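Re: beginner question about structure tokens

> Can someone show what the tokenized structure looks like for a real chain? I only ever see the sequence side.

Sure, here's an example I had lying around. Input first:
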Amino acid sequence: MQRALGLARRAAGEGEVPVGALLVAGADVIGEGWNKPIATHDPTAHAEILALRDAAQRRRNYRLEGTTLYVTLEPCAMCLGAVLNARVSRIVFGAWDQKAGACGSVIDLPREPKLAHGIDVFGGVCSGESAGLLRDFFEPRR
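And the corresponding structure tokens:
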């Protein structure tokens, strides 16, 4: 999670909302990303999506079974959909997102019984530090 926090700091340094993500297989980081929707003019350029794209390119496979996604903020519905389609096995996230979180805050898609793919979710890991980055980013903008 510390590496994901470093990626979130990188996003903040680039003027993006500070969210960082990395995908791990065993002990190896196979993909990483940080928020870039402003710089790329791409509403899908969330940290999780970029980490999945990076990993899929490296593996030359869109299926990322047996992997864990570490992300500093609870994934939104778009990102969770991509995670499920990639067959990621586990999500570990930092801060809860009371406005758009899809892992229990607003909706709880990983526990939706109608979805074919199950996923383990662990929230609140390094939540204070993750939430602090977001708070520090948004306070001067309000």
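Each token stands for a local structural state, so reading them left to right follows the chain. The beta strands are 20-25, 28-34, 68-73, 90-95, 120-122.
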